[in-house]
Amino acid sequence: MSGIFSLLLLLVLLSWANELLPDEKKTIGTYVPDVSLEDSDGRVFSIKGLNKVVVLNPIYTRCTSACPLMTQGLKKAIKDLREDLVVLSLTFDPKDGLEDLRRFREVHNLPENWYVVRSKEAEKLLRAIDYRYRYDEKLGEFDHPNLYVVLTPSGRVSRYLYGVNPKLRDLELAVLEAKREEVRLSPIEGFWLRCFRYNPERGTYEVDWFFVLNVAGGMFTFTLVPALVWGKGIYKFFRTIPYFLVKNS
What we know:
single chain; about 250 residues; alpha+beta; 7-stranded mixed beta sheet; two-stranded antiparallel sheet; 9 helices; about 45% helix
């Protein structure tokens, strides 16, 4: 019975969360404020001080529905991700103390590059990414959008990923986009990123078939012309063999 109730609660919260989705047109490409963050061990740092691609995931530690699912979904995705990044689970609940952050980290067995953090300036950071939430007195839960925000090493909003179970491909491409600000991508990374384009309506990356077909057509022409030239020469060479043999017999 409790499982059915949890599922119904999750569906209700998800429907409410859709009303709170951020306006990406106002935030993509803008810089987030470099606020002070405190992790579960009491260490204080800032986003820009990390100098790495950051995946920011707003949560609150007492959440019993979406937040644990988002955490586990992202944990599963980054396990197979080869890119160097930092994950920040930022609580927006002012009641969350260090003990709550530690418990959340331990329960989910988070890796070393993942910090559960709080901030006295959390609202300032959340406003910068247009993250809105509200507290439901009856349910005793916050309703909020389920999302991950990918930030560049300099703290600029690069991409939003939605849901509780991000696709590895979407996460990898979003991180590559953000990483491109700081370093030059390898030819393989650059080509892989160029083969896709982000669809804001679906919130996912899709194959850029126009680019792929153009590349395929170019490669076909590049290989076909030499093949025809060399093929014609080889054909003439073999045609002369019988004549050469007869002439010298």
